[in-house]
């Protein structure tokens, strides 16, 4: 599949990706990277720190994500995520220029009804936004969202990261959002990682992506 026009390439990784050669990823044209930080209340990802540091050292914009388990406390999951982020980020959960907003990955229901999923996610999103100073990103699959959550107008303020494979452009954007901001379009083996990585596209220019990561453009005197 051809890379979508008008987009900036990036990746997301976790321990499943194994050791990542970030300079090689940058040389391959990747501009940004998200790395898994945590899942639920107890699962950490041992690759968070090396990926967090390595992506920045290689010149990529970086971000971290949490996989939500709606059957657990949203507040406790947010605290757990922020603890992992701070541990990798020099003791603080505050994001710096070059850091992308944090991501809440919503793709499992754990048998919870829609209102429980929404309440759990809302608490996590509010807590992480207050702690980091940035509006978080919401990641999901259209099929999961439509089947388990449906329409949540209040979530339209969160940038959408949609996962949909095998199509030239996302077709299943939930009606909560007018459009997508990030698109995860493939998972595959890459030469710069020991395992598979997810491939992503940011919809916009490099300048707008940098602004999204808190980098203020120098307009000169």
TrEMBL record:
GO terms for molecular function: lysozyme activity. Keywords: Glycosidase, Hydrolase. GO terms for biological process: carbohydrate catabolic process; cell wall macromolecule catabolic process; peptidoglycan catabolic process. SUPFAM superfamilies: (Trans)glycosidases (SSF51445). Belongs to the glycosyl hydrolase 25 family. PANTHER family: LYSOZYME. This is Lysozyme. It comes from Bryocella elongata.
């Amino acid at each position: 599949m051809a890379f979508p026009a008008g987009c900036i390439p990036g990746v997301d990784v976790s321990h499943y990706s194994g050791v990542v050669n970030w300079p090689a990823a940058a040389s391959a044209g990747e501009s940004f990277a998200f790395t898994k930080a945590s899942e639920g209340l107890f699962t950490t990802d041992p690759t968070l720190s090396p990926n967090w540091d390595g992506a920045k050292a290689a010149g990529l914009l970086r971000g971290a994500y949490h996989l939500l388990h709606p059957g657990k406390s949203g507040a406790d999951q947010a605290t757990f995520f922020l603890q992992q982020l701070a541990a990798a980020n020099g003791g603080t959960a505050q994001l710096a220029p070059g850091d992308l907003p944090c991501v809440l990955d919503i793709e499992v229901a754990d048998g919870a009804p829609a209102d429980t999923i929404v309440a759990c996610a809302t608490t996590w999103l509010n807590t992480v936004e207050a702690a980091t100073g940035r509006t978080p990103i919401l990641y999901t699959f259209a099929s999961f969202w439509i089947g388990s959550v449906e329409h949540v107008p209040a979530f339209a303020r969160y940038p959408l990261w949609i996962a949909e494979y095998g199509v030239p452009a996302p077709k299943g954007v939930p009606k909560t959002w007018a459009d997508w901001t990030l698109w995860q379009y493939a998972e595959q083996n890459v030469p710069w990682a020991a395992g598979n990585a997810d491939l992503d596209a940011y919809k916009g220019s490099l300048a707008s992506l940098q602004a999204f990561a808190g980098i203020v453009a120098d307009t000169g005197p």
